[in-house]
Amino acid sequence: MATRSDILAKAASLRALFEAQGAAVVEPPILQPAETLLDLYGEDIRARAYVTSDAMRGEQMLRPDYTLPVVQMHMAHGADPARYTYAGEVFRRQERDPNRANEYIQAGYEVFDRGDPAAADAEVFALIQGALEGLPVTAVTGDIGILMAAVAGLDTSASRKAALMRHIWRPRRFRALLDRYAGKTPMPATRAALLASDGVITAPLIGLRSLDEIETRIAALRADATEPALSRTQVSLLLALLDVRETMPNAISQLHDLAVDMPAISDAVDRVAAREKALAARGVDTGNLMFEASFGRVSMEYYDGFVFGFRAATRPDLPTIATGGRYDALTRRLGQGGEIPAVGGVMRPGLMLELEAGQ
Question: Is 297 annotated for ligand binding?
Fold first, then answer.
């Protein structure tokens, strides 16, 4: 089993690899201000963060990953374009799986560049793939932006689109909402009773919501109840999109076919096609590279475009060895009016050594 010294040495070698590509080495503090980060992290990471309180600095959290602190740093005073690399500890609760480490070493590479997003995507993917060369891993790619474009193009209310958009990263909840909006599932009896009432609240208020907030929510439910159901065609097309799972060239062909009936996804599909060309130009065998339209919907909540992961082919029990993706919207949220296209990826040197030892 690899020692901590072995893992740190492997992480340092990965950082040196990325530094050789022109990346500046950064080391955000292990303790991070919690307020902003807790709002930005996805539900999965937020529920697993270690949070503590400091009398002088308020709520603090142990760094659950590097990407958000690096984005904050860059948007405050970074160059344009810029590349960063890092290696160090991250901390995540593992209450669902106590056999997984709650502290481990992470190494990564982040690119902030307005020039050519497809080329930047390919750069990050190809560098990480090269660093994993010789290990028994399989790569998978996806694009959250296609699904977001499909939801934005639905013929339904803005509030329903917003609800579906919020739950893109929670597949079960997303499907439940889709079925309800399509009229496939009946309205819950409690909601039906509420909407059938006169709406006057006479019971004492319990909880944190004010009377105004409750009445606003009831009004929103009444408005939603009058919305026509999503058409069977729209639902079928969206489900067909989610089912796309093919090698990249075949997936792009399927996506182009779907775009004929879903014009809202056309631009996003064109971006995937441009990325495929950029990956091929970097020497990536895109003919055997998998594309899954649903990939990244569980634990990649701040990604809004290209997503990728490298899984251990011989060890399905292990977490993903490396992950990454595009997070343009995150730079807008942290940029205080500024924004820049950004993409990055992280690697688990400890898992890499474990795979090496098992070969």
Answer: yes
